Amino acid sequence: MCGEIETEESLAEELYAQFVDHVQAFLVNLRTSTTQRDSGQLYDYLDALFRRTLRNSVTPEKAPEDVTGYQRLCMEPLVFARVAGFMAAHQPLEGDPLRRLIEALMTGYAEGEAAMDSDTEHRHVHGHEHTH
């Protein structure tokens, strides 16, 4: 039983470390792609808000000391979904706010999967893991 708990804890730590690596790589790629386009003030603001929120998700100083990174990884999306729902409830229905929320959610999910796929592909090609 004790060994199972240690295994679960080490797996959780590994998953969170992988998430942190993916966030950092994604933010670098995002910064590069957003500087290459002229998007306007609103989209610049939204990109900055997205980057700041994602960066905060991997900043341990923002959470209570007894909360692990993995616990935050599991729970914070629920808070963001709640905020998104609250904001969507105040938008006009003809704009179909729920559809836009779901599309944004699926875009974020696809971006997260792509980060995991590229990491898996990288390990498969080289046959081992290493830090860049």
Characterise the protein shown here:
Helices cover 76% and strands 0% of the residues. The chain is an all-alpha fold and 132 residues long. It has one domain (2-126). α1 packs antiparallel against α2 and α1 crosses α4. It is globular, with a radius of gyration of 18 Å.
Give the helices and strands, then pairings.
Elements: H1 2-35, H2 41-56, H3 69-88, H4 97-126
Report the end-to-end length measured between terminal Cα atoms. Answer: 36 Å
Mean of pLDDT: 82
Gyration radius over CA: 18 Å
- Helix content percent band: over 70%
- Tally the helices: 4
For the sheet with most strands, the description reads: none
Beta-strand residue percentage: under 5%
Element pattern in H and E = HHHH
User: What class would the helix/strand composition place it in?
Assistant: mainly alpha
Number of domain modules: 1
The strand count comes to 0
Rough outline: globular
Uncertain segments of ≥5 residues (pLDDT<50)? none
Keywords:
132 residues, single chain, globular, mainly alpha
Q: In summary, what is this structure?
A:
The chain has one domain (2-126). It contains four helices and no strands. It has helices at residues 2-35, 41-56, 69-88, 97-126.
